[in-house]
Amino acid sequence: MNTVWANKVLMVRPVRFGWNRETSLDNPHMTEPTEEAQAEALREFDGLAKALTRAGIGVQVFDDTPEPATPDSIFPNNWFSTHEGGKLVLYPMSQPSRAAERKPEIVDWLRAHYPNVVDLTAHETEGRALEGTGSLVFGLGTGVAFAGLSARTDGDLAIGLCGRLGFRPVLFRTMDFDGRPAYHTNILMALGEGFCLLCEEAVHPEDRSQVLDSIASCGVLVALSLDQMRAFTGNGLQLQGPRGLVFVLSDRGAAAVRPDQRRAIESKTEIVTAPLDTIERVAGGSARCMLAELF
Known about the structure:
InterPro entries: Amdntrnsf_FN0238. By secondary structure, this protein is of the alpha/beta class. The chain has a single domain (about 10-295), classed as L-arginine/glycine Amidinotransferase, Chain A. Helices cover about 30% and strands about 25% of the residues. It has 12 helices and 15 strands. The protein has helices at about 20-25, 35-55, 95-100, 105-115, 130-135, 155-165, 210-215, 225-230, 250-255, 260-265, 275-285, 285-290, and strands at about 10-15, 60-65, 80-85, 85-90, 115-120, 135-140, 145-150, 170-175, 190, 195-200, 220-225, 235-240, 245-250, 270-275, 290-295. The strands form 5 sheets. It has a 3-stranded mixed sheet with strand order 2-1-15. Strand 10 (about 195-200), helix 7 and strand 11 (about 220-225) form a beta-alpha-beta unit. It starts with 7 loop residues before the first strand and ends with a strand.
């Protein structure tokens, strides 16, 4: 594949990071935090930003604001995405605390740089959600987008957006390690240059064949276990650095990669990691969730 990957990302530095009661209802990866969670998350955030900068990835950082309180603001990829041709998509969120993450300063900056806007946020009043590149895993260079159906991923909205962006949608049912639908698609799969990380066990048995058929064009399949999914190995992001491709994972996610899997990934890209233990434990998301590509 000759895919154009993003070489710059947007990150939001947390101010009131913490456990979010609203989003904990369907995210079993979350646990209640310690009193030091904000300080620990800030150290981890800065560590990831520095690791990306060392790899030559551009990092556009915005500081969150204390009000309104947005404990999950560290995950901006859920409320917007950018695309080639100056396209910006603003997504409807499943919970009010997450909709509040669309802070005016960031939205205004994005609109100034990406004037072709698709605004889906009005669907929040209908109780319908599509949470960005958490809900949709775009197969850049393949024309396919994957969406695991859940309360945070409305199938009709996914189909409509894919049509506007020129992707063929592949919708499927999922099962997290607790038996409920996985809260986001990007917790169980990631697409890189010539490879795909996928936890097949998290895909509903009746939908696995269509998913496997659809990822054939994405390259080598790196099959993940449920334990690896729990370790956030599937929550990675492919980016383009000046010296070559880099695939970003947390330390925990990378440590769970088997030697044969690592060889398959490193034959295509360099792996860049940073410790994100507190962010993963408290907020239930990892490296990919923290990074919103700027194309």
